[in-house]
Amino acid sequence: MSIQSASPGDMSLNKKMNPKKDVMKPEDAGTNDAVFGQITEEGPDYRNVGWIGTVALMLKTQFGLGILSIPDVLNTLGMVPGVLCILVVAGITTWSNYMIGCFKLRHRQVYGIDDAGGLMFGRVGREFFSIGICIYWIFCSGSGIVSTSTGLNAVSSHGACTAIFMIVAALAAWMIGSIRTLGKMTWVAWIGVASVFIAVMMITIAVGIQDRPSAAPSTGDWQSDWKLFGNPTFTKGIMAVSSLVFAYAGTPGFFPIIAEMRDPARYNRALFVCQGFITAMYITIGCVVYYYCGSFVASPALGSAGDLVKKVAYGVALPGLLVSTTIVLHFASKLLFIRLLRGTEHLNKNTFRHWTTWIGCTFGIAIAAYLIASGIPVFSALVSLIGALLGTLMSFQPMGCMWLYDNWHLRGSSPRCTWYLMVAWSMFVILIGTFIMIAGTYGSIIGIIELNRASGGSRAWSCADNSNST
């Protein structure tokens, strides 16, 4: 593959690229990899994800936790502003994901966003993004543990203390997440995608045929109070936008996914399939559920159609919720694992050090995620906090910097209009990401404080049923 075909973000300027840039070609996808070293039969095959498997991993990185909060976002913003915000966030994150493919094809030694940060900003950038992405994946894993415990509570009618269900979810995610390669996790991802898809379709159909949502008054006439335009406070509005960012914020996970593809040249094909499906589902499911439920929509949305349907839907969705937790736990663990063993024979051989390091990484991430989940067990608040504080920082700003890093040198060679437009776009992505990060974090913290005050400060490490939140 030539440089010109590797980076659509460069528009027509690719032919002027710096010849020193490193380009990954299809023939490079052999046994000697710039990240994993010499891949042999004596160890795991890290480069074994096909493009269809890539679609599954991309979908499951995003499709699961995010869609459960979309109807509540529309309730806050209103139908029209909510859909517009979905499209804007979808557009920005699709471009960000696109740039990951471009950057990887040029810089074959990049495995994760920390490597990209190291190229752009040196040692400080590498360490900053290493810490940031680990914290981000831990928080995402924590959110998955919360949603899995919610499902277990719903299915069992709160058959045990929620703290116990969180331990069960964390242990299950740790065991499945300890599968060493993404190539062997694609079948798990497909199961997860299918289960969540079936569950949300069940809820969508159920709220359309039932008389009223479960949270609505049980007597008297009732009509959905959905609205075209909402009137939220700044805090609630920015929390809603942050939840949308989180719904699309699987972006940093696309770095390890492309790194383990057999043919990275097919990355864009998988990307567009994923983003098109995700956006269509978010808008369709979100609008239909919100239209029928109005302000009585539950968050997570699986609780909107009554106890019986909620139990069935959560039972179907449980594998998908667990797989979402598993994959992001795997991302965090793999980043630490490669950081510790990169450049040694233990990275790709089944040695004692290889296995103890890998199991230690997965177990440590699982413990940290459990602590986060137990400390902030309110789904909507946790989702908005993750999206605001870390989602934009890992999905917006770095990708704007990546385009500038690879194309800024063209400023002195009579750049065309497209170059200036791309500079302006990259700066816009950086600035809007920074604004959402600061404002959204503030709004999310205020929201968590208010929720904690309303519950008397007793929700952390609580045994209370968390499947009845609305």
Automatic annotation (TrEMBL):
Species per Swiss-Prot/TrEMBL record: Clonostachys byssicola
Compartments, record wording: Membrane
Any one GO molecular-function label of the UniProt entry: L-amino acid transmembrane transporter activity
Main location: membrane
Lipid bilayer topology: Multi-pass membrane protein
Protein name per UniProt: Amino acid transporter transmembrane domain-containing protein
Keywords for this protein: Membrane, Transmembrane, Transmembrane helix
Residue stretches making up the Amino acid transporter transmembrane domain: 49-446
Residue numbers spanned by region Disordered: 1-26
The family this protein is said to belong to: Belongs to the amino acid/polyamine transporter 2 family.
InterPro entries linked: AA_transpt_TM (IPR013057)
GO cellular component annotations of the record: membrane
Segments crossing the lipid bilayer: 49-70, 76-98, 128-149, 155-176, 188-209, 237-258, 270-292, 312-332, 352-373, 379-405, 417-442
